[in-house]
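Annual report, structural modelling task.

Input specification for the zinc ion complex:
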Amino acid sequence: MIRNTSQTRSKACLEKGEIACTSCGRPMPGGRGKVCEECYWTANFLKRVRINQAAFTNPQMSVSFGDYGEWLIRTVGPHRAALLIHRHLPFFLEVERTWRDFTTYEDLVHHFGGEGLRRVRLPMRWLMEARGIRPESETREAESERRRIESIMSTVRQGTAAGKVLAAYRSELTKRIDSGDIAVKSVRLALRAAASLLLATDTSGERLPEQKDVERYLAESPGQRAALIGFLTFLRRSHGVDLVAIVDRTRQRSMRRRKLEREIIRLVKCRDESEEWLLRWIIVGLEYFHGRKFGKHAIRLDMVRKEAKGLIVTMEGAYGDYWIPTGEWNPGSLDLIGGDAMTDEPSIQPQDCEEQTIGEISQIVCASTCG
Ligand SMILES: [Zn+2]
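The model returned the following structure:
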């Protein structure tokens, strides 16, 4: 096909204006000739694919090459596809020569090398998308993600209101995996947050979340906020329910205190002499009694000294000293920390153990302060 030069085209354009492409019928500049640019490159591309297909001896490979061609033109458009298709032929021919047909990803890497495969990025993408040929580790990872997703789905009863919503959300997310928007892992995290909210709302799955359920859930699991936003958007779009991912700070604090209390009770009951126990106790104690949150790497044993009635933790920098109880039920029975005769008052008192120091917590504090 002879293409017009831009000069003759613009002259022709002026004279002829817009005409219809003889192939697809869409309007195009009059000076272009008979077919539009897209049709020109599509025809050109198809011709190249047909010529290349004749190079294979295995008919199956020739069909595969045709499949690849269809994928390529869809993915990069006719112009680029026409320019690229010749370049990818040697890769297909080499595969045919070596294995007769496509083989595993591991075989391909072994033969072409990582660098070699990077040069045929588009054919590799096609192999991955259309033929599922991908690194085994990736396959394993994808499979285990899929299993995790199944187990999340199974936590909410199928056929219930919640089960239906979750299934619909999953199919929407799956579409986004297929179009390459998101990874399987993100889907799993989003589904886990959605399922947890649905379960926290109603274990039987009959009732769908309302704003108060969202707030209660987020107060207990504030870290889930980001993962939940997608689900709330989905609910708004699909069910017209307007829910906001608000974290209620007051409720969050009281939830956190209850969680810390449970942890304190657990620690006291499972007390052992290990360093690990002591560090955990200190971290929980600093947060519960002083509202100071430290990571486990911020605490070392040399920052801790025992006093008559408790432990003094000296934090580095401007943080200062903090008193916490020893965490014993029976002072005296353990001499790793505390447990000496009660003499002096603790130099630093817990600042924040008013209303919740009832029940077991007060006994724990008492066990170490009152003897
Ligand atoms: Zn056309």
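DSSP finds 13 helices and five strands in the chain.
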